[in-house]
Sequence to fold (225 residues):
Amino acid sequence: SAVISQKPSRDICQRGTSLTIQCQVDSQVTMMFWYRQQPGQSLTLIATANQGSEATYESGFVIDKFPISRPNLTFSTLTVSNMSPEDSSIYLCSVEDNTEQYFGPGTRLTVT
Amino acid sequence: GNSVTQMEGPVTLSEEAFLTINCTYTATGYPSLFWYVQYPGEGLQLLLKATKADDKGSNKGFEATYRKETTSFHLEKGSVQVSDSAVYFCAEGGGTSYGKLTFGQGTILTVHP
Fold:
């Protein structure tokens, strides 16, 4: 099974600033995914990140707001840009490994 | 787009009670179906899954059967414990990638001694 770590685990940021979240996997995986869990709500897929190509964004999410990097098969970053209080959420990294889906512990972001 | 609907929560039960959390989906074809659990302060964990019609997923005393005719995947446990208190998410994912999952809204379960 894949073990996923995320940094930071939580942060409090001021509106208008940006935060980059890191996701590290202990094995090489083809596809990595970024999800958002808004307070009291379910998880929503933001984008899919494949190594060597641009991320694919879901409806309602754009690259300018959530730029993603995928420099190798074990690492990815998600940046939340020009933050507003509405971006306060838990951001989770996820990978598909041998038909199983694994999730990181999440990054709890609060925007003030 | 596809959607997953879970029963309204929160659910509060006494220890050893029977649990059912209803889940229905709208995806056409034969998506894979999942139940994930999020214990307090922890990350999301896969509880069980089923990949084809009439399959039964089971783990830790929990069961769910893939019902194509009713597009449902209800979670059941015969006797809940206090340690089962958590948030439960139903999800579906199709095609060659399970990674693009559509989640239900989550059901908070609290079990009292």
Observations:
- Chain B is about 0% helix and 50% strand.
- The CA atoms of residues 1 and 107 of chain B lie 22 Å apart.
- Chain B touches chain A through 20 residues (CB under 8 Å).
- The mean pLDDT of chain B is 91.
